[in-house]
Amino acid sequence: MRRLATVLAVTLVVLAGIAPLAAAAPPVADAAVGDAAATAQTEPSNESAPPDPERDRIGWEDGYWHNESIDVNQSDGLTQAELNATVARAMARVEVIRELEFNTTVPVDIVSRSAFANSSGNSSYSEAFRAFDNAKFEALFLIGEDEDSLGVQQSNRGATVGGYYSPAADSIVLVTDNETTLQVDELTLGHELVHAVQDQRFGLGNVSSRTRDGANANSGLIEGDANYVQEQYRQRCAEGGAWAGSCLRPDASGG
């Protein structure tokens, strides 16, 4: 009985830590982007977007409101100008959902999956770490005794990762499956931009733990925040949403 009470207490503590992050992203209707911006939410077009503000504000980044249409067609890939416009508007959209202002523009690069897979396999680890990681995943029955856990993880990462944010470089890399024309998945971009604004405002480099459980808890909070914003982003991009028809997806023009 005492063990059960302890487990319940720990669960409540973890949930208490997660709740503020989930509550920090209100619906668009509650976001403080000004009366003119709120009026323009119904139609994502340049005609309905308000003039540029005199100073930076939530919902506007680098010349673009969150609900503006942009002259972008990625069917034949993105030019640098098109990528810049896409990133600026996505930053504005993340600001509206998360209610946090970016401090600086986030550099974004796009790479093919084959190029990413080749680069992601270049990490080096000590033999002690390899032995520890192998033992951990063997104990969980996730790999066999003859498999290398780090090699399996790198292979999976190269095949599935859609993008990542680097706190050290304060930049984002998006991974595309289209080898000939590099395209953007705006939902993935939005997810990684959440990590960028987390880092700019709270400092992801300052988040650390002395235990694996603590590290997993930190990751849960950081990723949970980004996943929540991404889901809110997806709903606004869906049919009937505030940004319907304007969100960029691979093999679709958006705009």
Describe the structure.
This protein has 255 residues and is mainly alpha-helical. The chain has eight helices and five strands. It is globular, with a radius of gyration of 21 Å. A hairpin with a 2-residue loop joins strand 1 and strand 2. Helix 3 packs across helix 7 and helix 4 packs antiparallel against helix 6. The longest helix has 26 residues, at 212-237. The chain starts with a helix and ends in an 18-residue tail after the last helix. A three-stranded mixed sheet has the order 3-5-4. A two-stranded antiparallel sheet has the order 1-2. The protein has a domain at 2-32 and 70-121 and 150-237. Residues 35-60 are annotated as: Disordered. This is Hvo_1808 family surface protein. Residues 39-48 have a biased composition (Polar residues).
